[in-house]
Description:
The termini are far apart. β1 and β2 (13-21) form a beta hairpin. The protein has one domain (4-99): Ribosomal Protein S5, domain 2. Strands 1-2-5-3-4 form a five-stranded mixed β-sheet. It has 128 residues and is of the alpha+beta class. The chain has helices spanning 33-36, 40-52, 70-88, 93-99; strands at residues 4-10, 13-21, 26-28, 31-32, 59-66.
Amino acid sequence: MEVVNKIGRRKTSVARLYLSSGSGNISINGRTLEDYFPSEIHKIIIKQPLVLVDSDGKFDIKINVSGGGFKGQAEAIRLAVSRALCEVDETYRPPLKKEGFLTRDPRMVERKKYGRRKARRRFQFSKR
């Protein structure tokens, strides 16, 4: 199997993923999954597509991720893994689509407007 290259995005996080057949090693920015994401929730988020299609431990994954926080990075990686799995085998697509792993979450932080304290927050109104 050749190396599959995919990109996943979430908020300001961008994850570039290289998937190849192997023994299940996951490397993120040159570190192990357990080292990069100490929280168990983030590890579960990343492995969700692999567990869903019963291919956990069949692929080696190398990931470069930048921007955003831990949660955004984990969800960007999940999207990239899902896209890569679909390219490896088309039969993985329906269950991944049903769970919503192939949908790019478009929500971004709203920009601050002039004359306001934040994006929508106005200054305190004073009648007198």
